[in-house]
Amino acid sequence: MDFTFDDEQKALRDAVRDLAGRHTPASSGGDVPVGPGKHDAAAWSAIADMGLLGLAFGEDVGGAGASAVELSLAATELGRGRLVTAYADAMVAAELINRAGTAEQKAAFLPDLLDGSSLIVPALAEPGRAWSLAAYDVTAEGEGDSVVLTGTKEPVPYADVATHLVVTARAGDRTGVYLVADPQVSGARVHFDATPAIQLGSLDDAPAAIEAAVNLGILAVVSEALGAMDAALPMTVEYLKTRKQFGVPLAAFQTLTQRAADMYVSLELARSTVLFTAMALADDPLDSAAASRAKVQVGQSGRHIGQEAIQLHGGIGMTAEYAVGHYTARLTAIEHTFGDTRWHLARLSASLRDYEQVEVLRPA
Amino acid sequence: MHLHLTAEDAAFQQQMREFFTTQVPQDLRQRWAAGGEPSADDMRQAQRILNEAGLAVPHWPVEWGGKEWSQLQRHIYLQEMQDASVPPPLAFNANMVGPVIAAFGSQELKERFLPPTANLDIWWCQGFSEPNAGSDLASLRTSAVLEGDEWVVNGQKTWTTLGQHADWIFALVRTEPDAPKKQMGISFLLIDMKSPGVTVRPIQLIDGGHEVNEVFFENVRVPADQLVGERGQGWTYAKFLLGNERVGVAPVGSIKRRLADAKSYAAATRDGNGSLLDQPLVAARIAELESQVAALELTVLRVAGNSKEGKPDPVSSILKLRGSQLQQDVLELIADIAGPASLEWKRGDDSETEAWAALATPTYLNFRKASIYGGSNEVQRSVIASAILGLKG
User: Fold this and answer.
1) pLDDT, tens digit, for every residue of B155-178?
2) What helix, strand, coil percent values describe chain A, rounded to 5?
3) Is B184 helix (H, G, I), strand (E, B) or coil?
């Protein structure tokens, strides 16, 4: 087992770090965006142009033929640079098409998604419902070319700028995957009223496709979170060193430095877990236990580091123009994306009897 | 980045697993797994079996029985040993005094002490802490004054773990009382516990057990050649000793073993028509701990890859801090699973309470020590804050 990046991976990391640095939202002066991310078309085309959307996908479908490890590395730098984008969402949509779609459907939609000419995002959440991989209130009727969807998905991040949606919908008592072009969108709400859709592949393949796609989305967001935590801690440490109160730097107060030390521990535990999960999903996209463990660890580390980063900064950490609060907002959003800590603990709890110990050392 | 073990490391893992589960008697391993006060005879027997196979002191210099293993192999060795409930080589011998003598002792001291130390023919105990010098080790006051070719030692050590079984003690003593800083003027001395003037007095702990002792020195005469390395350099050697464990500092294998046990205890404890493992709050707590332990193990493996041989690595503070927390969390879980059965402590002959359940509370109480010894968690946080984050208080 080896956690070190090779030269190519380091070059990718540096390139994405540069890109993210150029598109980082201003953190002092001017208009600072707060709240859920707004689509930044310039940042998005830079991401697409660098080929970051295709990292985890094969060259046969228009991807770069790298792996989930490279995807994770890129997403980490987007998180560090505070770029709030549709990256993770687009990865879920791409993997849904890749796994659920027929050869013709893949050829029709994937290359355009991966080169950035179309923006496709998943529509998974339903209003008034906790997170679920299954669909309940959006239903699909009909077969083949004459499928229609009815019901509401909300929130659907980036629906307002998407060219297509990949929608989970209930067909009888099963959940299928459907593609909708030019969706009817109002803010983050998407309403279907006998809306024509294309069924991606078969109902039999849909559950595994959804699971693998969400796992990839989880990897993207926990990696982003790693980047955010990895930036928020040094900002906080620097603040403790420079900010004076009662005539001395804050770092003179042991109660504060000990808390910074705990943040460091949280960060390193998260880093180990994210790197491992990238390798595990590159090996087996259906390793949902690894994905859930990453979500649990990053959920806990993210909450801890985000809350402490604001607290140790004091009042300045509460202001929109100071970056530490943006990291915390992003970490909070990530915790509630693709299943929260509770959901993932429940999924892990259900399989406790299947194994004696969690084995991270795996023979080839 | 690679996920999988190489064929060589996988073979090594199999080899270790087979050795520990077939060469160390099962009844001995069962006694160790049950917990409670460790049996000195079992510890001796286990270490001698390991030593005979060349597995007692793998991180010593090759000349003295070490193996040139990678940090990953060292992790695998510990993991498999702990998973099989094999008593580990006595830490005072294998991890503490042995490496110090091997690194700083004279050839004569090495030849005299290293083989019996590896074989547990000498049982060592550690004479560092004093009543007023715990985490603030440098303020120790036990003195050694040179008279002819003997040191005359006076003072008191405390928290001397398993000192009641010990043949020898390695002690930090103040040989230069006028040194300008309190870290200076300390020497590292090897003392026979049978020397006239050495008294051992047990300290009873909150679990009812006798694990630690006070050791008193009253005009104890120690041959001058039993001073390790240079006079006045004891502080340097102590820092070497405390810092040279990285991989072993978080007992991941035994935490995982206990957590797997906790799962089977929960499955065997009836609750309504099911078991405690069906209880969502218990199941979620186990799932959470499994995730946290996996994160720790991955961190051990990641840090092991960046090893700086022989130097204290501040990153090992993460492992000590988090390892002790998780060890305590798992034992707390087991006490909670035992529930009413944990009230018993000592079972009567016809008791229907399982041994693990009766021992759950004393074991939980005993391991409150884990976040205090070897540098308390507060000390570990200070090391991280200053050495890694650059926050000088």
Assistant:
1) 999 999 999 999 999 999 999 999
2) 55, 15, 30
3) coil
Q: State whether A241 and B13 contact (CB < 8 Å).
A: no
Q: Give the residue carrying structure tokens 């006070």.
A: B214
Query: Nearest CA to CA, how far is A304 from chain B (Å)?
Result: 14
Amino acid identity at B44: R
Question: In angstroms, what CA-CA distances link B382 with A244, A311, B138?
Answer: 20, 19, 16
Does B389 contact A280 at a Cβ distance shorter than 8 Å? no
What is the spatial distance between Cα B330 and Cα B332, in angstroms, rounded to a whole number?
5
| pTM (two decimals) | 0.95
CATH architecture of A7-119: Orthogonal Bundle (1.10)
| Burial class, B138, CB count within 10 angstroms (exposed 0-12 / middle 13-18 / buried 19+) | middle
Cα–Cα distance between A283 and A97 in angstroms, integer?
20
Contact B54, B67 (CB under 8 A): yes
Is the link from the previous residue into A155 a cis peptide, with omega within 30 of 0?
yes
Q: Domain A207-351: state its class.
A: mainly alpha
Partners of residue B216 on adjacent β-strands = B156, B199
Span A213-245, pLDDT tens digits:
999 999 999 999 999 999 999 999 999 999 999
- The helix (H) or strand (E) run that includes residue B151 is strand B150-157
Q: Which amino acid is at A326?
A: H
Contacts of B305 in chain A (CB under 8 A): 2-4
Domains along chain B with CATH numbers:
7-89 (no CATH), 123-230 (2.40.110.10), 248-389 (1.20.140.10)
- d(C-alpha B166, C-alpha A8), whole Å: 55
